[in-house]
Amino acid sequence: MGRQQGIAVEKLQALGDPQTSSALDETEQLVVAYAEAMTQMPVDVSEALWQKIRARFKDAEIVELTSSIAWENYRARFNRALLVESDNLSEKTFCVIPARPQLANKES
Known about the structure:
Elements: H1 9-14, H2 26-39, H3 47-56, H4 59-81
Helix pairs in contact: 2-3, 2-4
């Protein structure tokens, strides 16, 4: 989808190491850092990161950004819990998730 929306391949590849990539600008690196903090268990958005987000985005933009990140986290966790497999739409180019060991069948 990202490529269809015109996002450069270099930007998608940079998501693996966003803080050192020259492909992402400062705002993009900030958004990725926020997404990573929101994805931690438990969620851990530091005060320093929060202040950078508040300085860069308007309140409505923060709500939209936070909602988008939360929704993607929901989808990822839902799919992972149910072992939903990828459709290989990215042809294993981006966002590869390590294989999860199969759970032993437990009888209830």
